[in-house]
Amino acid sequence: MFSWSLGGSTKYLTILKRELDCIRQHKCFLKKSSGIRKIQRPPMERNWKPPLQESSNSYRLLSYNILAQELLTDNMFLYYDNDPKFLSWKYRIGQLGLEVNKLQPDIMCLQEVQHVHLKEMVRLFGARNSGPIKLEYLFKKRTGARCDGCAILYDKSKFKLIEDSIIEYYDEGCSISNRENIALMAKFALRSDPATTFVVVTTHLLYNPRRHDVRVSQISKLIRGIIKFSKDPTKDTHRLPVILTGDFNCTPDSTPFRMLTTERRAVVPAAKEEKEEHFLLESIHFGSDCASTFQNQWIVVDYILKSCAFGGEKTIQINSTYNLPNVISCQSYGKIPNKNYGSDHFSLAIQFSII
Q: Cis omega before residue 337 (within 30°)?
């Protein structure tokens, strides 16, 4: 679903030159500063809870804002106290690959994917220590001039893509909807049980901390799109189970997040009589006092949510979650990206079944 191409290598070379210039400038800044001794620590301990128990009907899903290199180089002031040798794409892609290889996901929902890096990531993320897997993918660039977007990568041997769709939040005629964020939706069937189908959605909402109104508008459009896309074609009022992931750029106590987890009801015509439809998303818990990124402080803005089942619908059962690090650990550890982490966000992962 490529809606955008680079049109030659000139722009890529320009981006690479700008990246190198920014890193050189960053190094000069560090040399002129008073100097802070950087202590390299091993990765923070993160565990699956409860411990993983593999079965033929369980799958792993990863959600990860991988930090587009163009955004990093354009906003280098955010990373002035990060060690510059760990900020190049060549180094970061290696660390991202290690994270994927460790978690062994069957589905990857990625945000801030830069188009020119996509095929490289597909090759690397499919080369597992346990044996290579055949990955297929969907990608949608943000509307506008930016080169990053969202991608869904999946193991072709385990899932068959039935349908995909996009949501563009941009609306030129509305002042709170003129931002260039998007969402990507995919409908899958299990290869092992083609009658079992489910929906995976990933999105990246506006960053600006002051514009909750924009995120509320984006979430409203997102939920409407998911409700429509997840309709079960075999039953009047049933919906397919949904997993929603992404960087929502809002904390759990914010109005946009409360909108995500508010139940929707609607009366719809059915075969014999009107029936009431329900749609509700439940946020998956990744630990207490945890953090997924640093935005002036360590906070959570990345989430995985699942739909709740009503009236005999199939549901997503969460078997295990890959816990996020707690805030105290993050404060003592220092900012990311660094030697051990290739992004300025931590990954989220779940093991799930469809029942």
A: yes
Instruction: State pTM to two decimals.
Output: 0.87
CB atoms within 10 A of CB 45: 8
Tokens for 204? 């990246």
The pair of structure tokens assigned to 285 is 């818990």
Is 50 exceeded by the pLDDT of residue 91? Answer: yes
- What's at 192, amino acid-wise? S
Reported as a single tens digit per residue, the pLDDT across 154-177 is 999 999 999 999 999 998 777 788
| Separation of alpha carbons 187 and 198, rounded Å | 6
> How confident is the model at residue 2, as a pLDDT?
41
* C-alpha to C-alpha distance for 26 and 299, rounded to whole angstroms: 26
How far apart are the C-alpha atoms of 147 and 4, rounded to whole Å?
9
* Distance separating alpha carbons of residues 343 and 65, to the nearest angstrom: 7
CA 141-316-161 angle, 5° bins: 45
Q: Round to whole Å and give the CA distance between 26 and 165.
A: 40
